[in-house]
Design brief:
Layout: H1 8-21, H2 27-33, H3 39-71, H4 75-95, H5 110-123, H6 126-137, H7 146-164, H8 166-205
Helix pairs in contact: 1-6, 1-7, 1-8, 2-8, 3-5, 3-6, 3-7, 4-6, 4-8
Length: 212
Amino acid sequence: MGFELDLRPFLQTAIALIAIANPFAAVPTFLSIIPSNDPNATRQAAKRVAFAVLVILVGAVLIGRFVLDFFGISFAAFRVGGGLVVTLTGLDMLRRQHATPLEDATAESLADQLVVPMAMPLIAGPGTIITAMTMAARSRSAGPPWMVLVAVAVVAGVVWLVLTMSGWLQAHLGARGQAIVMRFMGLVLVAVGAQLVLAGVGDFYGLAGAGS
């Protein structure tokens, strides 16, 4: 066979980013800053948040390699560091019961709130950015990490879908359902973070199969 497509890296990247971004946890905050009972306003706000998340993560993916080279950080070290951050974020999600609401949402305009703090750091926070950079750094090719960029686009699409359906999700999931989703995502993150740490240690010591 001249061409063989391996979707495992793509699926791992997309699932990890969706889990750590956890748009479900942002639903209560999103609903608190948009006009109630206005489907059009909800769709427009969700589109703005998703686009901001896309721009932030694409920027992290594209400049991540240059940041590593500039500071002289090896891929193995960054992989271990990123894995630890992802693991700690997952553990925090396992312990957390509810999303953290905005403390003072009236001081800023709606448009500003949708970018900061909704898009960043509530969804595209430090953990999400580090995960995107870590996954992009796994690419051995000289070109752009296209598979990671596609995964980032999928994440932005999921963010848009979840926020667009935020009213329905809150009504049907409730606080307990959102807590269950958050804990499941946290468990996924702990596993992904542990895998990144083990792979980074394996890369450092030159162990066989470290990059798998």
